[in-house]
Amino acid sequence: MPGATMEGEFPVEPQSLKKLSLKSVKRALDVFSPLHGQFPPPDAESKKVRVSHKLNVEYQGIKGTNTQPAPARKVNAQQSSATSNVLALPGPESSRDQQQGVAQNEIVVGPSVQPNSMAEDGFSGKSNALVASRVPSERNYSTSALMERIPSKWPRPVWRPPWKNYRVISGHLGWVRSVAVDPSNTWFCTGSADRTIKIWDLASGQLKLTLTGHIEQIRGLAVSSKHTYMFSAGDDKQVKCWDLEQNKVIRSYHGHLSGVYCLALHPTIDVLLTGGRDSVCRVWDIRSKMQIHALSGHENTVCSVFTRPTDPQVVTGSHDSTIKFWDLRHGKTMATLTHHKKSVRAMAPHPSEECFASASADNIKKFSLPRGEFMHNMLSQQKTILNAMAVNDDGVLATAGDNGSLWFWDWKSGHNFQQAQTIVQPGSLESEAGIYALTYDVTGSRLISCEADKTIKMWREDETATPETHPLNFKPPKDLRRF
């Protein structure tokens, strides 16, 4: 019959649509449950195995002090040869060890626990284990007692007053890209994207002279300390020598295949060095206009260069994130530093110490000379594209970036003691806050910055600042990254 059921069978209950939909929802919940992405609960047994292995690796080679008599040492040696050693740390007091005369507060090595007791504790019999020795002690020691504390030897910076902007000079009609100070410390010159070179009085900031001759922006300037010459280089592939007695160009150095980005004068011999977008640093004889060397080896734009009287006489930084040392006698590479990860746009040698700093978007690094050994990173990151840097005899390093940030550092310790932000001129865009060039005057007491808002700003130390008004907030580094 339709309603009858066979013997041993259960009647099938009619299921409603609601019940079937709930079953479907439950099945979807099981499939797409958020618990699937979570880690399972920790297993106590596997944790014990991991701890046992770690103890075996960490404390296998630790030897204890000989605190037992000679016969006892022989017995212990026979026992320890059969089984592995364990490191025993001081634990609760015990009258038995007091009778044996074990010294207090000592770390001793004893025979390992028997396999049966090890199995009870959850450790394997083959691995070493930490157990508490029943040595009388007033306090419990941890494994930190085994670690030697090394005091921090990082040099503490001296207090320095903050720097402030005291003068803004306007006159250029384009971005100010380069600056150089006269060795007599009476005037300085700036080159701009308006294709002019302007000479300013250093004390008053008054315009003294405007020179024209380039047909593109001027990216490099240098003033000779032995002649009345000034050198300029720009995006028009031209390198010019200006006679400051006649205020005109007397020589041009032809050879670059693209824009010239940097320029430097050798301190002892009449040699000029220029680097540019053709990835070559060219060495020129000032008098004869001849090219002495073409220092080729970089894979991208050479954007920074400085010279020294001794080896390495030429140091170049490039957009290929490398720094190269050059032998000026043979025109060959002496060393290549690959510590940076981004373009090395600026370098600054210390005036009196045998070391220099290099700036990149990833970090500011210090290297020793003449071998180029890495010293350390600066303790903070400016986190912008750094276009210029300068250091004075007092050990104040200034770095400037594309976002208008001007940071001041203590050279010895790498501590950033001031973070200044330039203020764009009225009518300028906020994106024109970049700083393209920095230099100190001969005394090192005034800093000149060339900026994208077409102005030149001058900075000096705040004479009213004291250690109480501007305290030194310095913390020695704990985990300083080497690279």
TrEMBL record:
The keyword Repeat applies. It holds the Pfam family WD40. WD repeats lie at residues 169-210, 211-252, 253-294, 295-336. Keywords: Repeat, WD repeat. This is OLC1v1039234C1. GO terms for cellular component: catalytic step 2 spliceosome; precatalytic spliceosome; Prp19 complex. Residues 76-86 have a biased composition (Polar residues). It comes from Oldenlandia corymbosa var. corymbosa. PANTHER family: PLEIOTROPIC REGULATOR 1, WD40 REPEAT PROTEINPRL1/PRL2-RELATED. GO terms for biological process: mRNA splicing, via spliceosome. Belongs to the WD repeat PRL1/PRL2 family. Residues 62-102, 461-483 are annotated as: Disordered.
